[in-house]
Amino acid sequence: MNIGVLALQGAFIEHERILTKLGAVCTEVRQPSDLHGLDGIVLPGGESTVQGQLLQKSGLLAPLRELVTDGLPTLATCAGLILLAQKIRDSSVTHLGTLPVTVKRNAYGRQLSSFVTLESVRGIGSYPMIFIRAPYVERTARNVEVLAEVNGNIVAVKYGNQIGLSFHPELSENLKIHEWFLSLCAKREKYF
Ligand code: GLN
Question: What would the mean pLDDT of 165-189 be, rounded to a whole number?
């Protein structure tokens, strides 16, 4: 399976390491021609403002949005979730805007900017969640599936083939989320 990993900025190598371990071939995505023939794509954590600007500059924004909307399986973590969100709280900016949720950036404030917690993810079970200056999901459209909450805040969602996580599965030794994502890519479920 050929999995694209958006490689403009942020923690993309860590995703590649896990996906390769699980037998996938990774394509680093930096320009529109890299999007050809992908079975899925990962949008890594990092800095969403910078990534959003680079998506524009590289010409990736429109073709990537089209692929995600057409049902290309997408695993978006942290800044990646912000890229997918239809609305960013207190901001008029949106990037891909394909996931009908409102996210709050840096939602845990300064005191609790980074932390680890073991919580349950629907369909996966107990999972060590690593949060780094993370967003959470404040609102979802009705047909967005909530997969996990921490302290009453939504930290994992699924909508069609888009998975959005506040935390960083690529920094954990638990491979279950990437395994599950690859199974979605293999099935390439149809949107709706
Ligand atoms: N705080 C970052 C942002 O708003 C996200 C942090 C992360 O990806 N670890 O873009």
Answer: 94
Other C-beta atoms closer than 10 Å to the C-beta of 152 total: 6
Query: 180: CA distance to ligand 1 center in Å?
Result: 23
Residue 111's pLDDT band (cuts 50, 70, 90): low
**Ligand 1 closest atom vs CA 48:** 10
Ligand 1 contact, 106 CB (< 6 A): yes
Q: Which CATH class is domain 2-186?
A: alpha beta
Contacts 24+ apart (CB under 8 A), 85-89: 85/137, 85/164, 87/139, 89/138
Q: Which atom of ligand 1 is nearest to the CA of 168?
A: 9
pTM of the model: 0.96
Q: Tell the residue nearest (CA) to atom 4 of ligand 1.
A: 105
Host H or E run for residue 56: helix 48-58
